Amino acid sequence: MTLRYATLLAVTALAAPFAVCAADIAVPDPLQVAPGQKLVLDVRGVGVQIYVCSALAADASRFEWHFKAPEAELYEGDGRKVGKHYAGPTWESNDGSKVVGAVKAHQDDARGAAIPWLLLNAKSTQGAGMFGKVDAIQRLATEGGLAPKDGCGAAQLGQELRVPYQAVYRFFSAD
Hints:
- It is built from 1 helix and 8 strands, in the order H-E-E-E-E-E-E-E-E.
- By secondary structure, the protein is mainly β.
């Protein structure tokens, strides 16, 4: 079985039980959007967090997995694909509009089993579509995506690892 096929199976398995209702998510205070922001889109991201095995800057004889980029598809509640998420971090809609975010606040997963929840400000937007007027983004209800604690050594230097994850992404606008 190829690594790509194994990743696809893992992502599919993660997506199947994911049934978090946006209304059921208790958003911590540090991740709340500014007053006046209105929810314009609520989607589920399903994909991978990509890590690269690298030597530590402080000690080149030690190695660890370093985050490279996300790679995910974005789905509305009815299962319709509406866009993608990739390095930047960037979210791109099927209508061609884009938003690039900058992390404003984060909160570690309470179970220590998933990537952190985030609040991001829009650093830039492009296009007149669904992401064209986004001011803030929340990443909530994360599942998976953490880099492994081991498996990165001199023999793996430069290798990429794709760790399945999913999250709820909420997009807000003041307009």
